[in-house]
Amino acid sequence: MATSSSSRRGWMSNIQSIASRVYFFLIILQIPLFRIPCRAGMCSTPIHVTSSQLIASEIFPVPVIKGLLYPGAIVNGLVNNRTVARWDDLLSIYNLISVKEASAVTDLQCLEVLAGSYFSVAGALVGILKPSRMSMFGTLLVIWGLIKEGILGKPGNTDPSQSVYVYPTMLIAVLCAFSSIKYDVKKVRRIVPARPIAKPVASSSKSKLK
């Protein structure tokens, strides 16, 4: 029994580790998960949404944000143009040069997607070291924001390139986000109280005989 339980825990830890790595590469390599209007125009990855907001608010230095963008920019450049993206051209590639002057109304309308993108990026980075629930919360927030924006969005927008869209890769992100969570079965058993065993009530006739 001990061997089977230890092998089960090892199998679960391998699933969590693999899921965390796949989720990390989905986020850091900027695999398109959705399409939604943002301050940079149209954003298709959590890092693009996060970077546009961080540059507009000036919370982090620009080199730190470029560091988040650079791995995905290299992959996208090699796949699309077969060229390596230059460090100095990152802001222009992602349309982030004039993002400070862009209207913040778009971000206010998609607060769930913005907050979910923050959690997704942070969960992807933290999940490499230790599995956490941030990636799951972030992914759920993004999905809820996309659903809300798709249902309550402006019906007059007939341009398909400007409409909200969810790519099939979002399903992979959801599966990885949930699979990377670490469940402790022992803690769950401790939290659930034991049910008291009901004792049979002796009948009055038997009690009189006694």
Automatic annotation (TrEMBL):
Which intervals hold domain PH? Answer: 1-20
Transmembrane regions: 15-34, 164-181
PROSITE patterns to which the protein is assigned, alphabetical: PH_DOMAIN (PS50003)
Its keywords, alphabetically, are: Membrane, Transmembrane, Transmembrane helix
Enumerate the PANTHER family for this protein. TAIL FIBER
Put simply, this protein is called PH domain-containing protein
Q: Which organism is it from?
A: Citrus sinensis
Q: Cite the source lineage.
A: Eukaryota, Viridiplantae, Streptophyta, Embryophyta, Tracheophyta
